[in-house]
Amino acid sequence: MLQPNFDPEPTEVRIYRCGYVSQCKARGCQIRAALIAEKVDTAGRHVRQIELCPLHCEIVIERERARGLEICDRREIRLR
Ligand SMILES: [Zn+2]
Predict the structure, then answer these.
(1) Around ion ligand 1, which residues have CB less than 5 A away?
(2) Number of separate domains in the chain
């Protein structure tokens, strides 16, 4: 697979509540997503985001933390 070499390096993962209906993006998961994991780079710019169910969100948090990324948990912040 061709990878662009200007791919921004994510340094932080922000966890939000998912405010819209979406299925968990983990492979084979049929559960409705309740959370969003957003990766941002050093400048705080959005890199990518994925919708996840609570279980897969925990897995992603553990994995990214192990890779040295900062985890910013914003689940408790009420949106709108
Ligand atoms: Zn899931």
Answers:
(1) 24, 26, 29, 31, 53, 56
(2) 1
